[in-house]
């Protein structure tokens, strides 16, 4: 489906992420990051753009692609990786060899802890990367305040220390180092400190936070508020550091990530290519189903196609579907850790891509969009035919008074308000929702049968098994129980109940089928409550006017027709009431209203 830029801008999400502008030959000409993708990408297509560079960029852009990430920090890191990989024409920043810094715990005796931009595979441990230099400087400052560590690059092997090859330096005399080079500090104590530092860098900062809070409280009690504020900022930076990056990790090997989400018409595949611990490429693709193929078959074909397209030679694939019997590669289905976070991000993008494409279809081809939803509802609800005509019932009352019911009608998934109906409950007294539901359903379909009108494909009852059972009794009396599908929706967990089935159906909270049913239920409730409120107001006005001497049936009807309720009558202008019922009767009504207040 060819989609215009105008349609894409209407459907792009408001999440943090990275966007790519592509030329007519689908080469990447610009990569950017955004805290809000919709706002940022839309800003390029405004009419008042004056920048020549931006105008040329938009002129040469034929396609827009994007990927959703968890945070603004992840967007920054992913943008950096994609610019370095693709060297887009219109990006002037980040095309050099610089990268974001890491904190390294060196694999050596008396390990050093320092900041570096290079990852060396020598067994050292790396934490990061960091997109904020303020954060990394604060973390290193915290570490130096809490622990005395060496910063020299001597080889402090046991043999070298015993042979006294090194002497303590100025750092020792300043108290920044405990002199491990001369054996003044033993290796075991030093490594305990390094272990504590590892915990901080992994995000386990509770102990450090407790110490800082004590220090902040001490400054605050001494009315040294500026110092207390600085400590507070360090605590906040520590808390920000606890959120770990998904798109860049030193633990990730060279791997491909694939996920698939499908509906009745199409499958939506997301692909991430990871190299040297970074996402360097992403791709979304929609595949139309022809013979109702399953996800395994579609994904196996797409893996081969996409890997060939992007010349991927990775031996490992992360996915939520294991295809090792179909493709001669190692499949990883992660349960936790960095691989699981990466897979979750891929699934999130596949779902977002499906949502956007369906929204685009709704705008470009509404009929096809409706057909897809109707077919999806038929499958989800195990119906023989599509629910093109749905009716939903709701009962409204307050402690058994002014019992009313509403029936709303949806045609092709949309409200058909001309066909809505209101019901006054006639045969049931008090609060009896089951009896009221039985009466209303019987009256509704008895009339449709008598008048030979169209019957619905599906009936939705607002309520659980009790209300559903009452509606089913009426359908049985009318001989319609096997002719119309019926279900009840319970509000607590949004479970769907079917006749003769004690186990409810739970649909995904984002399911389009559930959304249509919820919209029906909410509309029936709104319509019913509105009717109940009007009836209650009229009842209140009628009963109030009945108690006024000199106000007869004729006058009461005039007031009821004009003002509907006591509250509106109280707010009315005196002259308006006089014009309606005369001066004498107006005085009686106003005196009554004053006394009632």
Outline the structure in words:
By secondary structure, this protein is of the alpha+beta class. It has five domains: 5-86, GIY-YIG endonuclease; 102-202, no CATH class; 255-363, 2-Layer Sandwich (Nucleotidyltransferase, domain 5), CATH 3.30.420; 378-533, UvrC, RNAse H endonuclease domain (Nucleotidyltransferase, domain 5, 2-Layer Sandwich); 547-596. It is 46% helix and 19% strand. The protein contains 20 helices and 19 strands. It has helices spanning 5-11, 37-43, 52-60, 72-86, 133-146, 158-162, 170-173, 187-201, 206-221, 225-241, 295-309, 337-364, 366-380, 433-450, 465-478, 512-546, 553-563, 566-571, 574-581, 583-596, and strands spanning 17-22, 28-34, 63-68, 102-105, 113-116, 125-127, 255-262, 266-275, 278-288, 316-319, 330-332, 389-398, 401-411, 414-415, 421-424, 458-462, 485-489, 496-498, 501-505. The strands form four sheets. Strands 12, 13, 14, 15, 16, 17, 18 and 19 form an eight-stranded mixed β-sheet that branches. A five-stranded mixed β-sheet has the order 9-8-7-10-11, sandwiched between helices. β8 (266-275) and β9 form a beta hairpin. α5 (133-146) packs across α10. The two termini are 65 Å apart. The relative contact order is 0.06.
Features of the shown structure:
GIY-YIG endonuclease; eight-stranded mixed sheet; single chain; alpha+beta; Nucleotidyltransferase, domain 5; about 600 residues; five-stranded mixed sheet; 20 helices
Query: Quaternary state, please?
Result: single chain
CATH level-four homologous superfamily name of the largest domain: UvrC, RNAse H endonuclease domain
Query: Briefly, what CATH class of the largest domain?
Result: Alpha Beta
Question: Which overall shape is indicated by the principal axes computed on the Cα atoms?
Answer: elongated
Q: Please tell me how large the radius of gyration is.
A: 35 Å
Tally of domains: 5
What is the structural class? alpha+beta
Question: Which stretches are low in confidence, meaning pLDDT under 50 for 5 or more residues running?
Answer: none
């Amino acid at each position: 489906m060819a989609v215009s830029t105008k349609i894409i801008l209407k459907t792009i999400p408001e999440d943090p992420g990275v966007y790519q502008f592509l030329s007519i030959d689908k080469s990447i000409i610009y990569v950017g990051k955004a805290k809000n993708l919709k706002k940022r990408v839309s800003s390029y297509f405004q009419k008042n753009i004056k920048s020549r560079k931006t105008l040329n960029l938009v002129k040469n852009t034929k396609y827009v692609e994007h990927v959703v990430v968890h945070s603004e920090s992840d967007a920054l890191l992913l943008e950096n990786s994609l610019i370095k990989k693709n060297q887009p024409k219109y990006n002037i920043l980040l095309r050099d060899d610089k990268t974001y810094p890491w904190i390294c715990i060196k694999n050596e005796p008396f390990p050093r802890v320092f900041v570096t931009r290079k990852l060396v595979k020598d067994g050292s441990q790396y934490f990061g990367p960091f997109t904020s230099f303020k954060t990394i400087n604060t973390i290193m400052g915290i570490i130096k305040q809490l622990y005395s560590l060496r910063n020299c690059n001597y080889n402090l092997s046991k043999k070298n220390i015993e042979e006294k090859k090194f002497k303590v330096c100025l750092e020792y005399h300043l108290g920044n180092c405990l002199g491990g080079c001369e054996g003044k500090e033993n290796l075991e104590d030093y490594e305990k400190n390094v272990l504590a530092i590892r915990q901080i860098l992994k995000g386990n900062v509770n102990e450090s936070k407790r110490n800082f809070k004590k220090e902040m409280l001490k400054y605050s009690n001494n009315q040294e508020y500026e110092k207390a504020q600085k400590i507070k900022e360090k605590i906040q930076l520590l808390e920000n550091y606890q959120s770990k990056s998904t798109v860049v990790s030193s633990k990730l090997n060279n791997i491909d990530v694939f996920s698939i989400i499908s509906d009745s018409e199409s499958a939506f595949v997301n692909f991430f290519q990871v190299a040297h611990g970074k996402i360097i490429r992403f791709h979304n693709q929609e595949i139309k189903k022809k013979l109702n193929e399953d996800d395994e078959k579609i994904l196996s074909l797409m893996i081969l196609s996409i890997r060939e397209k992007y010349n991927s030679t990775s031996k490992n694939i992360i996915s939520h579907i294991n295809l090792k019997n179909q493709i001669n590669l190692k499949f990883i289905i992660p349960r936790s850790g960095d691989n699981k976070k990466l897979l979750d991000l891929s699934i999130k993008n596949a779902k977002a891509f499906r949502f956007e494409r369906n929204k685009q279809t709704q705008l470009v081809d509404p009929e096809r969009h409706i057909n897809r939803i109707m077919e999806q509802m038929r499958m989800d609800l195990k119906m023989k035919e599509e629910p093109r005509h749905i009716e939903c019932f709701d009962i409204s009352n307050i402690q058994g008074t002014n019992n009313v019911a509403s029936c709303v009608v949806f045609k092709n998934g949309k409200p058909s308000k001309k066909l809505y109906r209101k019901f006054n409950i006639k045969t049931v007294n008090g609060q009896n929702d089951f009896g009221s539901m039985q009466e209303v359903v019987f009256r509704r379909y008895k009339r449709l049968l008598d008048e030979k009108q169209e019957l619905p494909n599906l009936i939705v009852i607002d309520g659980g098994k009790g209300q559903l059972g009452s509606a089913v009794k009426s359908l049985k009396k009318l001989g319609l129980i096997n002719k119309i599908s019926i279900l009840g929706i319970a509000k607590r967990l949004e479970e769907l109940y079917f006749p003769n089935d004690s186990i409810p159906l739970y649909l995904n909270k984002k399911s389009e089928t559930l959304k249509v049913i919820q919209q029906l239920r909410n509309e029936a409730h709104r319509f019913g409550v509105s009717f109940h409120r009007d009836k209650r107001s009229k009842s209140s006005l009628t009963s109030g006017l009945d108690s006024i001497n000199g106000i007869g049936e004729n006058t009461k009807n005039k007031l009821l027709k004009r003002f509907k309720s006591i509250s509106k009558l109280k707010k009315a202008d005196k002259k308006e009431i006089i014009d309606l019922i005369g001066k004498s009767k107006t005085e009686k009504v106003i005196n009554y209203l004053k006394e009632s207040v």
